[in-house]
Amino acid sequence: MHLARKKEDKLKDELKSRFLYKDDLDSLYLLLSVIESQYRCNTLRPKYSCTKRAYNAMGKFFIDREDVDEIKAAGVKILNDDLSRLEFAIYLEAYSLGYEDLHSVNMAENYILTKIPGEDIKGKKKLLHTYKDKETRQVKKCIVDNLNEYKDFEENTEVLVRKFFDKIIKDKIYYLNKYLDKQLIFRFDGVNTYIVEERFITLKELELLFDKLLKTYMRSIKFLSKEAIWYGVNDRVLSRY
To answer: Angle at Cα 19 formed by Cα 17 and Cα 22, nearest 5°?
Structure first.
């Protein structure tokens, strides 16, 4: 049983790597099939909040430029698939971590039963997945922070994000000018009207932008991971009824 599980975990890692770095959709479909055969999944639907926050950070970074909307649109065009792929892969791993941690699932179940009678759980699609009351937030934080493998997962996630940004995202950021359609713009200084061309983004600005996006994405993915773990824990409790 243990050997079979190790083989299955190795297969999931290989599929995730092919999906992430080769954009292999067949690997994604197979990975989802493996996960769905293991779990009763209701919530494998990330909202891609990390990707959206990265674009917002890009907009704020260039807020003083007249072509900020064009830059942001170019960023979405060249980065969306990659950032979304990374977010989905990490979401799946965090969800699995929560689903498989029986100690955390047992703790959550004991708490959930103080909120929802056992006979009312069967047939539900969600339990305390999105509850925001103070007590539930505290229980959620306690469960996630004390998860057996959480520290290792957090460290591995940070390594993965940095590696992915260096290998996939960096070159696309540094070539951002290539995707901008430079146009002539009119400027009025109160006396005269001038026609000037929008300036290109400097290398220094691109370097700072890369660092900004990495920091924003890293912060967001850590929050998302905790949400995914909590969803996995809740779904495992649901599967018992």
So the answer is: 90
Between CA 222 and CA 220 the distance in angstroms is 5
* DSSP reduced 3-state for 197: strand
82 CB-near residues (< 8 Å, 6+ apart): 164, 168, 169, 172
**pLDDT (mean) for 80-104:** 89
Rounded Cα distance, 228 and 93, in Å: 9
- Alpha carbons within 13 angstroms on the beta-carbon side of residue 210 total 22
Amino acid at 112: I
β-pairing, 193-197 with 184-188?
antiparallel
Q: What pLDDT shows up at residue 34?
A: 62
Q: Give 144-174 pLDDT, tens digit per residue.
A: 988 888 889 999 999 999 999 999 999 999 9
Asked whether 225 and 153 are in contact (CB, 8 A), the reply is: yes
Residue 207 reports pLDDT greater than 70: yes
Q: Is the pTM of this model over 0.85?
A: no
Q: For Cα atoms 175, 82, 71, give the angle at the middle one, nearest 5 degrees.
A: 40
In order of 31, 130, 160, 224, the CA distances from 27 in angstroms are 6, 30, 18, 23
In the block, tokens 């996006």 appear at 213
| DSSP per residue, 40-66 | --S------HHHHHHHHHHHHHTTTST
